[in-house]
Amino acid sequence: MRKAKRQAAIMVLTLAVGLCTQLSIRAQGPQSKGEEETFVADYYYKAKWGYADEYIRLFKKNHFPVLKRQIETGRIISVTAAKPRYHATEDGRWDYRVTIVFKNMAAASDQSSEEPIIKQLFPDQQTYKREEQRRFEILLAHWDVPIVSVPLDK
């Protein structure tokens, strides 16, 4: 039941981000195919105290290989991760930020390539699903922030 609620929440968030981005693109006016921009998003993860190392270990083991494969296919241009050097207040605390640069908005929205990659990379689906469930059990919060460049020289 919790997993279904989490998946529903992720779908709603993904749709909301897509809608906001589409509205932003429409407000900027039409672009030609040659001017299609990359789509950048920061994904923030806040783990339970004492579990951040376990979280990133599971991320590197199960999710990062899927992202790397999507770099090979051209859907994703790059994936980087960062963590804060020092602790913040609890309400503003996050443990990891993963920045993904997608080829474009359409590529960011199309997740259809993920499932075949997951099945190919992880033939032991039981273990994969158990470890992914654990990775999300560790989280207290997770949020996604689409990023737009702000030119400072203009």
Could you estimate the helical fraction of the residues in percent? Answer: 40-55%
Listing every helix as H and every strand as E from the N terminus to the C terminus, the arrangement reads HEHEEHHHE
* CATH class categorisation: Alpha Beta
Shape: flat
- Strand arrangement across the biggest beta sheet: 2-3-1-4
At CATH level 3, the topology is Alpha-Beta Plaits
SS content category? alpha+beta
CATH architecture: 2-Layer Sandwich
Q: Mean pLDDT across all residues, rounded? A: 84
Helix count equals: 5
Backbone CA Rg:
17 Å
Count structural domains: 1
End-to-end distance, in Å?
50 Å
Sheet bearing the most strands, described? Answer: 4 strands, antiparallel
Portion in strands: 15-25%
The stretches of 5 or more residues where confidence is low (pLDDT under 50) are: 3-32
Total beta strand runs: 4
Task: Write a brief caption for the model.
With 154 residues, the protein is α+β, with helices and mostly antiparallel strands. 49% of the residues lie in helices and 21% in strands. It has a 4-stranded antiparallel β-sheet with strand order 2-3-1-4.
Describe what this molecule looks like in 3D.
There is one protein chain. The protein is an alpha+beta fold and 154 residues long. The protein has a single domain, classed as Alpha-Beta Plaits, CATH 3.30.70.100. Helix content is 49%, strand content 21%. The chain contains 5 helices and 4 strands; from the N terminus they run H-E-H-E-E-H-H-H-E. The chain has helices at 2-28, 52-73, 105-109, 114-121, 125-138; strands spanning 39-47, 76-82, 96-102, 139-147. Helix 2 (52-73) crosses helix 4 (114-121) and helix 2 packs across helix 5 (125-138). The chain is flat. The N and C termini lie far apart (50 Å). The relative contact order is 0.21.
